[in-house]
Each structure stands twice: as structure tokens, then as C-alpha cells.
Amino acid sequence: MPARDAEPFPRAVLDVLAAAGERPVFEHGTRVVTGDEMLGMVARIASGLRGNGIGPGDGLALLLGVTAEAFAAILAGHVVGARVVGVRPGLTEAQVEHLLGLDIELAIRDADLPGLLQSADEPLRCDGRPNDIARLIHTSGSTGAPKACAQSYAAMTEAWAARPEAWPPAIRELATRLDRYLVFGSLSSQVMFEYAMLTLTAGGTVVVAGDPADAITELKATARVITVPGLAKLVAAQKRDPADLSTLKALLVSGSPLTPERHRDALETLGPVLFHGYGQTETGMISMATPDDPPGTVGRPPVDVEIRDGELYVRTPGQAQEYWGNPRESAETFVDGWVRTHDLGRFDDDGHLRLIGRARDVVIVNANLHYVGPIEQVLAEHPDVAEAYVVAVPDDETGEAVHAFVVPKGDRVPRLEELRELVTARLGAACAPIGLTAIAEPPVAPGGKPDKRQLTA
Fold first, then answer.
1. Within 10 A of 415 (CB to CB), how many other CB atoms are there?
2. Which CATH class is domain 363-456?
3. CB hemisphere CA count around 282 (13 angstroms)
């Protein structure tokens, strides 16, 4: 057995739980789980996984809710060295079947967890091999099959969340505010899980929120992740009918850029609590603005960032190395040790990063990125559609939404509801258009291609 300091992820997290001892680390309703209890659950589930023949390099799919056992199961999967695949809610049946077909030896649902809790008499041993893939984190699935970002055990061991000595300045400041951090939706979310680990390392408690909308007040939370549309709703609600947000210390804004005006308005309404993060599934955190950074920026990146023809290329310690089983798209995104973000940005004179656009044709709905190409292809399958073009439009509920322009085949224009049903069945509800415009033909740019800028205008 290797020395403890040589063990890979999640050794650092296990050490944090051991140091917590009798301190609460996870709270779900009236249930409170201490560090010792969480560590015990991890050990027992790891024993159960090994009893099922799961070890280094094996595929382990987790279709789990947001519970203490789910958190322990994720860690246990990494303890035994498996390739952990978190299956988030909201995917279509076809997408879930696709994920479960990615060399998976065992799939676990919430009902399976009690049977995995086996006795564990020996000390926890982390069996992950540095070059093995530790987890597959999936993109939105707007291409039909979600792309799986493959992160190695070496990369997860080098990531910063459970290593205070590696915390960038913005994370060091954020860590002081994570007394009670809300988790909701899915622990397979990279953002949700990373900040949960950071919270435990900072000495805080992870608190489960069924409905995050009122949880700050009801659960006396000090921190939560929030999308830009969610932030706009919170700001509007505070102006209209202020709630008691006196415990709030940090809103982790993610998913899409904040305009300087909206950023400034949120700071003025909510106080100095905004931490505006910029990252991708492929990279993890790239940069983060603290409440003291200029509105409209995402702070000063603590990682390597190059701007090539306006586009951002980055290198982070915990970045993915490929799209699992997808060499063509891997070659387009993972370039000589760099990750091509497909985002456009620039640095101001003080080194703050400003995001100014996207180099790819996408719509970002509820912080999830969806490529428009597959949506256009599905729309064009409708018998009354000759051509289809999709653009992103602002939406108060989701940040952005899909608007479809279609060239009808004949005299009949398809109904919006027909197109929504078609797209939802194939790609999920987030890709379904909220608006429809029939056109005789698309406007054309000087190069001869359809000009979506004119459609958007």
C-alpha cells in the first residue's frame, strides 16, 4: 500500500472528513451527519463496491439524488479507483441509455445504496491510478449524445478544492464565507460537487435544499450557486418585497456572463456577496471575480490563459484531457495541453478578464450550453420545414432560449407546439424553441452563408 501522502484523490477529502470528526459536515432536513459518520459511509460503500467487483478502471454509473449517501457514494467510487459517471436529472431516456452504454460495469440508483453498505474493518485505501480516468462529466447533450469530459486521477489530485495550499486568492476569500453551503439539483454537477468539497475543507457544512428559492432564509444559508437568470429574479424580489438575507455571504454566479449593469445592480441590492465565476466542464474554474473586482469582469485568472485571434485558450491543473470516445471533437478542443474554450475575451489594463462573446453557435439555457446545429437538424425533419435556423434570444426565466426561423416547404407553416414536441423528444425540453418565425429565405452574409446576426436583430 502506498504512503498516505502518495495516495490520489479523494485522499485529501477523506483527510478533511477525518479531521472534522464530530463536527457536522452534511445536513438534510433534521438529519445531521458528522465527519466521522460520512467517513464511515464512504468506507462501507467502498467495501460494497469492491464486493461487487468494482476496482481501478471499472465504469461506475451513479443515478442518485442529493443525499448524504449519494455524496459518500461519489467519494467511494473514487476510493476504489473506478471511472465514475454521474447521470444528472433532466436527460432524455435515450441520453441516459447512451451514458449507461459507456463501458459501465455497475449502475447504482438510490434504492441500491442500502445494499452496498457493507462492513469495513480495514483503513480506507485509495486505489485510483494516476493515468486512469477518474470521472466523466457530461456536457448538456445538445448534440443528441452528451459529450463526456474525461478527467484523470492525476488531474483530480492536482485540483484545488480540497487543498488549501493551492487555493487562488479569490477562492481563499470565498472559503471564509462557506459556513452553510446549499446543494440542490444534482451532485453530479461539477460546480455543485466542487464547492461542496471546498466547503468541507473550509470547515463549513453542506446543506441540502429541496427548493433553493427560499432556502437562504429558511436554512440560514451563507452561500449558494445561482445562475444569471436566478440572480435577476432574486434582485427583483429583494427590490419588491425584501426577504431576510442577513446570513448570506456568497452568491456563486455561474453559467453565463454578467453585464456590468446587472453586476452593479446586484451588488447594490444584495451587498458585497457576489462571486462571479468563469469556467467550463472541460476546465473547471478558470477565473472568479470577488465583490471587490470591477463589475462585468470575471476577475484575474490564476491559471494560464492565452488569447488567440480573440479566443481564449486555457490550462488548468484539474482540466479534462479528452472527450471520452470522441477523438474528432477531442482534437478540436484539447490542443497541445491547452483547452480551446470557444469563448471570446480580453484583458483590461489591470489584468481583469472580460468575456465579450462566443466563437461557436450555441444557446446557453439555465447555465447549460446547447449547440444549435443539432436543434436545426431536428427541426428540419418536420415534414413542413424546408430549412431551419436557430438563434439565442434573451429570456428572463432561463437566461437564453431558442428561437426558430423556418422556411416552410409549402403553404402550411408548422405550429410552434409541433416543433417543441419534436425537439423535446429528441434533445430535451431546454432545446425546444420558445418562439417561431416563418421566413421565405434567410438573409445572406457577404460570404454567401446565412447571416444569423440579421435574424437575431
1. 11
2. alpha beta
3. 23
